[in-house]
Amino acid sequence: PAKLIDGKQIAADKRQQIKVKVQELAEKGLVPGLAVILVGENPASQSYVKGKIRDCKEVGIHSELIRLPETVTEEELLAEVVRLNRAPSIHGILVQLPLPKQISEDKVIETIAPEKDVDGFHPVNLGKMMIGQDCFEPCTPAGIIEMLHACKIRIAGKHVIIVGRSHIVGKPASQLFLNHDATVTICHSRTTPLAEYTKQADILVVAVGHAGLIGAEDIKPGAIVVDVGMNRNADGKLVGDVEFPEVSQKASFITPVPGGVGPMTRVMLLENTVKAALASDGRLQSESR
Ligand code: NAD
């Protein structure tokens, strides 16, 4: 049976390291600050935002929650982003998606100053990632790479297959794996037959949002399986895209849902916020990686 990639534990260890770093910075007069904008009352968004604020508190990052009504205009939201771009105590800005339909998400993301774009969704950061420059990497893909590193899993030379091509997970994940010298294949809703591809993966990353999409017959024996999916099953339990019981018998490593990619995503936001704070401070810049 596969070894469990314990994202929850890896993330907890990382939070501890970040806490120490934040204390050091605070002693030098730099308190990293994250602003989170939440529009409307979407229950999932509210719960994500709550988690992000709680994480900040735990490691000593200053956080500000800006709540705006569902009816907010694009102009008002953009004005808020511009205000935060200029706020010296704020180093990272995150606008929780999705946004109501009167607002262009692209426009909002493009208005965030790239140096405060801790979600890594701004075209400048995505472009820099593409050409291998230092940038803010999107949290979910960065968290996946980080958890593989923590388990000492080599990426270079592996055939990595990513199922899903969204702008926040699949596509940036494929670029990050390429930057780590993997051979990368991207599969999506029009890939047929999917299993012919997934069976070739040394590392299989599944980010679709479809419970049970990947079964034991869809993977190669000994594959490393990273399940990004988050779905509610009939009894309201959180499950991934991978049939965990059977796939974990055939894989060599596997991430659980919950307790895998989710906690890693959250901790990478903290890491990006500390990085943004360091980069903003001329005195401490040399400490940023
Ligand atoms: P999305 O809906 O934007 O994209 C889904 C992708 O899956 C698309 O690119 C589509 O082409 C592909 N797809 C759809 N049906 C398919 C099929 N039958 N075969 C192959 N590919 C198919 O989703 P997203 O935002 O990338 O999220 C994917 C999943 O990951 C969701 O369940 C989401 O909740 C979860 N997620 C988890 C985290 C985390 O931190 N754990 C973060 C982001 C998203």
From TrEMBL:
GO terms for molecular function: methenyltetrahydrofolate cyclohydrolase activity; methylenetetrahydrofolate dehydrogenase (NADP+) activity. Keywords: Amino-acid biosynthesis, Histidine biosynthesis, Hydrolase, Methionine biosynthesis, Multifunctional enzyme, NADP, One-carbon metabolism, Oxidoreductase, Purine biosynthesis. NADP(+) binds at residues 164-166. Its EC number is 1.5.1.5, 3.5.4.9. The keyword Amino-acid biosynthesis applies. Belongs to the tetrahydrofolate dehydrogenase/cyclohydrolase family. PANTHER family: C-1-TETRAHYDROFOLATE SYNTHASE, CYTOPLASMIC (PTHR48099:SF5), C-1-TETRAHYDROFOLATE SYNTHASE, CYTOPLASMIC-RELATED (PTHR48099). This is Bifunctional protein FolD. It comes from Sporolactobacillus spathodeae. The gene is folD.
